[in-house]
Amino acid sequence: MPETTKRSAPHASLSTDFRIAVNRLSRTLRAQKADTTVSDAMFSALARLHRDGPMTLAELSRNEGVTPPSMTKTVAALVDRGLLSKGGHGDDRRKVLIGATPAGADFVVETRRRRDGWLSPRIAALTPAERRVLAEATEIMRRLAHQ
Predict the structure, then answer these.
(1) What is the pTM of this model?
(2) Cα distance between residue 20 and residue 4, in whole Å
(3) Could you tell me if residue 17 is inside a domain?
(4) N or C end of the chain: smaller count of CB under 10 Å?
């Protein structure tokens, strides 16, 4: 077996196990939302606007890593639900700013509360040593996510 294969085999197993665990946890957390008919893409866009404030469709599309036509559909669905609103851009009347409504902000806060409510007691049930390992792993996961 080539040397590179020998060295990468344990990492491949860890990669698989890690990916499966992250996917399962992510799926469970995503299910903890205020309205299950709001898709993950819709929630992501809404949460970004809640956190970062109003922006144009082009800015939102770029920040979310999706095409403008896809974001147009997402925004329209959120506007229809009363979670987003559209307004004029102060500097350029041709542009439209999209922002979270009070109902949209409440939705984000409630969804985050539910997700934290699911996860917090499970973390509290860990031993102090496990919580320290989890804190270290969280930093490593952040680094992996930003590479």
Answers:
(1) 0.79
(2) 24
(3) no
(4) C
